[in-house]
Design goal:
With 422 residues, the chain is an alpha/beta fold. It has 2 domains: 165 residues, Glutaconate Coenzyme A-transferase (3-Layer(aba) Sandwich), CATH 3.40.1080.10; 236 residues, Glutaconate Coenzyme A-transferase, CATH 3.40.1080. 26% of the residues lie in helices and 20% in strands. It is built from 14 helices and 25 strands. The strands form 6 sheets. A 9-stranded mixed beta sheet has the order 8-16-14-12-11-17-22-24-25, with helices on both faces. The protein has a 7-stranded parallel beta sheet with strand order 4-3-2-1-5-7-10, with helices on both faces. It has a 3-stranded mixed beta sheet with strand order 19-18-23, with helices on one face. Helix 6 crosses helix 7 and helix 13 runs antiparallel to helix 14. The chain starts with 5 loop residues before the first helix and ends with a helix.
Length: 422
């Protein structure tokens, strides 16, 4: 395995080429810093990635002629660039992103990734982020990898022979860590209500953040749980180590924790390192609805920015302002609803940090409907659980008003009367 410097690795990048960049904690910082150093020589280089951590230097205003960021999911470090038109967003289900690369819909000139050192068999690992990065490596004309000894070697689809890479750059720095956010009393209440809906033997999909962590913390008394999720963080480790998560009732990958990527602290990265109980797989397979539906009691726990009185879920924007992305929400909501005994659940606080209701008469103008009213089953806030499945619009409005914040129920009731002539 021959290695080069970061500057040499990016020296052949040309204007108007497209580069896929490894996401989350696998972000190839040294390669991107070297690329930004060439900004004066380049014009219109397209950067494609999911959420990344750290400072997105290439998205700064002074580099807008050199680099254009085309996001497959919008993180906080590029949100302003999208709002100001220096970047854009591709609405796409997470499960379908690999096909964009493999089918040539979005052909890649380059892929920049981070990998573990090669093992005795001559294979490196994509580590904490296999997701759509595997497809990028398989599809790009040229693939450059940062080799970082701190990258965990994970089991699953991300173990690749060194022959698949064109150049290697040696680095040695800790992976970016994302400590779990502190849980509020409200988060704990929501977590407890969601946990009451989770049955023993269920298979879980959850994200990261205070509410997912609160749910996981409330599951310590459950038994025989499984995990099949696009991502997970530190909150899951305790449940695996305590024997709550065993995966013994899963019909796919029995006994395994299945995910597309992980993001958290060094404790999490150490947990997944060479752990045969954890499989990180191609996201096209993890998020395949036809596979998810085969898992009994599949319980998908997702979030929302706002939900209207008919059950429409906005999860990617605040009005017209793009905030995140479609992600894998619909992949799992549909899969869980078709699973034997499955439950798709939306968990959210009843109000925003500014005290505005997140259950609203209608979505804000321009808001994206990520999950339709026909797909929504359970909605959970700190004030209760609304089961919308099989209910008409008037019944849905009543159920959602009952779990809204008390300060907003009167206004929501007036809106429901006017709209539905209740």
């Amino acid at each position: 395995m021959s290695t080069v410097s970061p500057d040499e690795a990016v020296s052949e990048v040309r204007s108007r080429q497209r580069i896929y960049v490894h996401g989350m904690s696998a972000f190839p910082r040294c390669l991107m810093d070297a690329l930004v150093a060439r900004a004066d020589e380049l014009r219109g280089v397209e950067i494609v990635h999911l959420h990344t951590e750290g400072d997105a230097t290439y998205a700064r205003p002074e580099f807008q002629d050199s680099f254009f960021v085309n996001n497959l999911f919008i993180g906080s470090n590029v949100r302003q660039a999208v709002a100001e038109g220096r970047a854009d967003y591709v609405p796409v289900f997470l499960s379908e992103i690999p096909a964009l690369f493999r089918k040539g819909v979005m052909p890649l000139d380059w892929a920049f990734v981070t990998v573990s050192p090669p093992d005795k068999h001559g294979c490196v690992s994509l580590g904490v982020s296999v997701d759509c990065s595997l497809a990028a490596v398989e599809s790009a004309e040229r693939v450059v990898a940062q080799v970082n000894p701190n990258m965990p070697r994970t089991h699953g689809d991300g173990n690749l022979p060194v022959s698949m890479f064109h150049q290697f750059v040696e680095v040695d720095h800790p992976l970016i860590e994302m400590p779990p956010p502190p849980m509020t009393e409200r988060d704990v209440k929501i977590g407890a209500r969601v946990a009451e809906l989770v049955e023993d033997g269920a298979t879980l999909q959850m994200g990261i953040g205070a509410i997912p962590n609160a749910v996981l913390a409330a599951l310590s008394g459950h038994r025989r749980l499984g995990v099949h999720t696009e991502m997970f963080s530190d909150g899951l480790v305790d449940l695996v180590e305590s024997g709550v998560v065993t995966g013994e009732e899963k019909t796919l990958y029995r006994g395994k924790v299945v995910s597309g990527f992980v993001s958290g602290t060094k404790r999490l990265y150490d947990f997944v390192d060479d752990n045969p109980r954890v499989l990180l797989l191609d996201i096209a397979n993890v998020n395949d609805t036809s596979a998810i539906r085969k898992l009994p009691k599949m319980t998908a726990i997702n979030s929302a920015i706002e939900i209207d009185l008919t059950g429409q879920v906005c999860a990617d924007s605040i009005g017209t302002k793009l905030y995140s992305g479609v992600g894998g929400q619909m992949d799992f909501v549909r899969g869980a609803s078709l699973s034997p005994g499955g439950k798709p659940i939306f968990a959210l606080p009843s109000t925003t940090s500014k005290g505005e209701s997140r259950i609203v008469p209608v979505l804000k103008p321009g808001a994206g409907v990520v999950t339709t009213r026909a797909h929504v089953h359970f909605v959970v806030t700190e004030h209760g659980v609304a089961d919308l499945y099989g209910k008409n619009l008037r019944q849905r409005a009543t159920a959602l008003i009952d779990i809204a914040h008390p300060d907003h129920r009167e206004a929501l009731e007036r809106a429901a009367v006017e709209r539905f002539h209740r």
